[in-house]
Amino acid sequence: MTDPDARLAALETAVANLTSRLDALAPAQSAPAVDHPVETMSDSLDLWLLDNLRSRMPDGAISYGGIATVGDEPVHWQWTVPSAPLLDEDWSQSADRIAALSHPVRLRLLQRVLHGTTKTADLGDDPELGTTGQLHHHLRTLVSAGWLQTRRRGHYHVPRERVIPLLVVLTAAAA
After folding, report:
1. CATH 1.10.10.10 is the classification of domain 4-174
2. CB 165 within 8 A of CB 81
3. Using CB atoms within 10 A of its CB, is residue 3 exposed (0-12), middle (13-18) or buried (19+)?
4. pTM for the full predicted model
5. What are phi and psi of 155, to 5 degrees?
């Protein structure tokens, strides 16, 4: 490849590829909430997620994902679903999973487990989690809803595939 134009074109392509890969790794930037279509918003906003969704799924989609470190392990996860079928699904099937998060003690429990307190005995030492009976009730509810799993008797963990969805629910609730 001695032709300067061909070399320049190859370099431009390589830079464009690297730039798009870096953009995909960049942390998400929160766009302000609006009551009007995104197309009317300022061009100064970096709406890379919406731009990507629009090009990949022009009929509409819901997408979320994230990167977090739990213990010493990184968790990478993303999910995208078409929005039209989601709007028509029976949402009541999600009620138990959502309801399991609606108690402050259960949220505290999940947070403690994500931070490394995984044994029932150690969780029982936290007075904010209630009596032993109450603790076991909350643990059963979270296990039943899929937010927690048991590794062995008396040891719990948040499944890797539930970490980012949990953080997305908490982020959405705070928005």
Report:
1. yes
2. no
3. exposed
4. 0.70
5. -125, 125
